Amino acid sequence: MFKPLLISLSLFALAGSAAAADPITEAMQRAYAPYRVALFKTNGKSQAEAAQAVAEAWQGWSRVAADYGAAPSVPYAGDDRFSRTLSDVERVYARASEQVAANQLAAAHDTLEEVRDLVADLRRRNQVVTFSDHMNAYHAQMERLLDDGPSLLAGAEGQTDFALQAGALDYLASRLKAEAPVEYLKNDEFLALLANVEKSMADLKAALRAHDAAAMKDALGKVKAPYSKLFVKFG
After folding, report:
1. Domains of the chain (ranges plus CATH)?
2. Do residues 132 and 16 touch, judged by C-beta distance below 8 A?
3. Which residues touch 86 (CB under 8 Å, ≥6 apart)?
4. Which of 14-18, 103-107, 180-184 has the lowest mean pLDDT?
5. H-type alpha helices, 69-130
6. Pair 25, 128: CB distance under 8 Å
7. Gap between the Cα atoms of 30 and 94, Å rounded
8. What is the model's pLDDT at position 13?
9. Is residue 47's pLDDT more than 80?
10. Is-contact 68 24, C-beta < 8 A?
11. 8, pLDDT greater than 70
């Protein structure tokens, strides 16, 4: 789960992501922006802000379902699970909305994580790739390293295994720049946020090269925040 971040609401202004090759993917990317805000807000402490964010994200997704759910066009036209997936996402929003209403923000955050997986799987089975998929790949490996890293460093051969996992994350970090849309690479805010991700990896690699377990643990603890800030705005 994302830690609360001290970022301004101006980070949430971007409506969508990279231009997509088809109108449905473009619409889903637009709906993904308020979804990221909902993830952020449900990881905070304000029930009112979380409720508003979830409602806006749900409304955005409902527009996608209303516009395309009945008769999807290429590349989703042959997907017999397309409409069901859109409905599944709506059910996730409904459940998260109920949890927020009960002031169960952490549970709502976990529930909303399902949207990421549902939408990513929808794109994947229809051979559609967006920048969000590269962000998701980094996120998955990052969470694995965060979960396993402390126990790996505590083991006799842990630094070697830790380095292998960190190497995979470093590669995925490099893909964030390599796969970034052209308009992102011209965006100073994107470049600054990406540079912070790259610095977090550089610090982790420096600790690995020094064979300093304490420094590795410290650097690992500073990996998630830069990614989270990049995700909220551009993920």
Report:
1. 9-125 (1.20.120), 131-234 (1.20.120.290)
2. no
3. 61, 64, 65, 68, 69
4. 14-18
5. 82-101, 105-125
6. yes
7. 19
8. 32
9. yes
10. yes
11. no
Q: Which residue has the tokens 């859109």?
A: 86
Token pair in block for residue 113? 């994580």
Please work out, in degrees rounded to the nearest 5, the angle formed at the alpha carbon of residue 10 by the alpha carbons of 94 and 45.
Answer: 50
Q: Find tokens 């064979």 and name the residue.
A: 211
CB atoms closer than 10 angstroms to residue 139:
20
Say if CB 90 and CB 115 are below 8 A apart.
Answer: no
According to the model, what pLDDT value does residue 99 have? Answer: 98
Vertex 134 angle, CA 192 and 172, to 5°: 75
Give percent of the chain with pLDDT exceeding 70. 91
- Supply the pTM of this predicted model: 0.83
Sign, CA dihedral 45-223-142-193, equals: positive
Per-residue confidence (pLDDT) for residue 154, from 0 to 100: 85
Handedness of CA 28, 31, 32, 35 (dihedral sign): negative
- The per-residue pLDDT for range 131-172, each reduced to its tens digit, is 999 999 999 999 999 999 999 888 767 788 999 999 999 999
Which amino acid does the sequence have at 169? L
* Closest of 22, 18, 100, 19 to residue 57, by C-alpha: 100
Residue whose entry in the numeric block shows the structure tokens 């490099």 = 174
